[in-house]
Amino acid sequence: MLIFTAWLIAASGTLGALFFSDIMGIAPCTLCWYQRIFMFPLAIFLPLALFPLDTKVVRYALPLALIGLGFAVFHWFLQLGLISPSASPCAQGSSCSEVEAEWFGFLTIPLMSVCAFALISISLFATSIQGKK
């Protein structure tokens, strides 16, 4: 059930990223691309581990989720101004520190990415703990 939950979040994140870029026309910045690199494989790995159930997928999926979480937190902090814009890896194209979309006055794309990677990591970590019992 936890792997399914993690896959559902990863699939939603993948479809959301594609929706923002391909339907809404928001060009992904460099940090968005790095987050996609770590989110998109999760949408593929996790359902493969469901039939038959293979909790060993946590070995591969949890590092992807944690590294993606690191990029997402960095991106979110950059947009909040907690990290200097000079630390931004964006050299051309969309700016990593610019807020392109915001809902409810606080919900930005990097914050949604932080939430998605955090929930996936928690689900996978819980799966790992369940597997050890």
Automatic annotation (TrEMBL):
It is found in: Membrane. Pfam families: DsbB (PF02600). InterPro entries: DiS_bond_form_DsbB/BdbC (IPR003752), Disulphide_bond_form_BdbC (IPR012187), DsbB-like_sf (IPR023380). GO terms for biological process: protein folding. The keyword Transferase does not apply. One of its GO terms (cellular component) is membrane. The keyword Oxidoreductase applies. It is a multi-pass membrane protein. One of its GO terms (molecular function) is protein-disulfide reductase activity. Keywords: Chaperone, Disulfide bond, Electron transport, Membrane, Oxidoreductase, Redox-active center, Transmembrane, Transmembrane helix, Transport. The chain crosses the membrane at residues 33-53, 60-83, 103-126. Belongs to the DsbB family. BdbC subfamily. This is Disulfide bond formation protein B. It comes from Iodobacter ciconiae.
